[in-house]
Amino acid sequence: MSVKSAINKEVFIPHDEKMLVAAQVKRRTKKKIPFLATGGQGDYMTFICISVTNKKPSCVSITKVKQFQGSSAFVKRSQWTIDQLRQVNGIDSNKDCPEFDLMFENAFDQWVACSAGEKCTFIQILHHTCQRYSSAQKPDFVNCQSKLLGEYQTVDSVIFRCKVYLKRKRKAFVAHNGHLLRQGNSILHSAADSVTSAVQKASQALNERGERLGRAEERTADMMNSAEQFSVTAQKLAMKHKC
């Protein structure tokens, strides 16, 4: 089970809600902590989640969820309704970047997502959710790429999300099927060894054949020399008998 599926199961489903999207984030600037609030629980991961109730009329919430180091549990920290959201700042409308800001009635947070793709998906779904569920004044989306806002960019947004999804699935496949890749490499190495062995055997056979040919040529040369000597001797004997 993925982390986000676990958040949905532990935090939202028990309250009859479903999570629409979650982005893992970190603060861009350190938050000032009151003196009496020191002595926290150590390192943690933070997720900004958007959820909607299953019962009508639907109520949409933006929730900050944390998971502390050494614990498998997820803890709900802060929560706002979508009508309390005043502004979403995408930081740069010309390129993908992981930074974004959320301004509420009584809070302002500066975040950096774990990736630009995750931030873009979060803002796209947040914008669509605001257009659908906000009953009061809708929040302002500033410095956001046009592909994340408006229905005319739906196709590009779907393609973008599909690319993110396929990239995630490819990483999961490599992680879970690494042994198959290793087996494939082993097979390739075995095949290479077999080819090398075959070449070595062929080379050895050619060398042996060359040695045999060399010996045959030497014997042929010896026989030719012997034949030539026999011919000379026979001629001498013939001349001797004539005399």
The total number of structural domains is 2
Q: What can be said about the biggest beta sheet?
A: 8 strands, mixed
Contiguous low-pLDDT stretches (5 residues minimum) are 35-39, 152-156
Order of helices and strands: HEEEEEEEHEHH
How many β-strand runs? 8
Task: Please state how the strands of the largest beta sheet are arranged side by side.
Answer: 4-3-2-1-7-6-5-8
Tell me the strand percentage band: 15-25%
End-to-end C-alpha gap: 116 Å
Alpha plus pi helix count: 4
Subunit structure: Part of a ternary complex containing SNAP25 and STX1A that can be dissociated by NAPA and NSF. Interacts with STX4A.
Subcellular location: Cytoplasm; Membrane
Membrane topology: Peripheral membrane protein
Pfam family, one: Sec3-PIP2_bind
Can you describe this structure?
- It is a peripheral membrane protein.
- Keywords: Acetylation, Coiled coil, Cytoplasm, Membrane.
- This is Syntaxin-binding protein 6.
- The protein contains four helices and eight strands.
- The chain has about 240 residues and is of the alpha+beta class.
- The chain has an eight-stranded mixed sheet with strand order 4-3-2-1-7-6-5-8.
- Helix 2 packs across helix 3.
- The radius of gyration is 40 Å and the shape is rod-shaped.
- The relative contact order is 0.08.
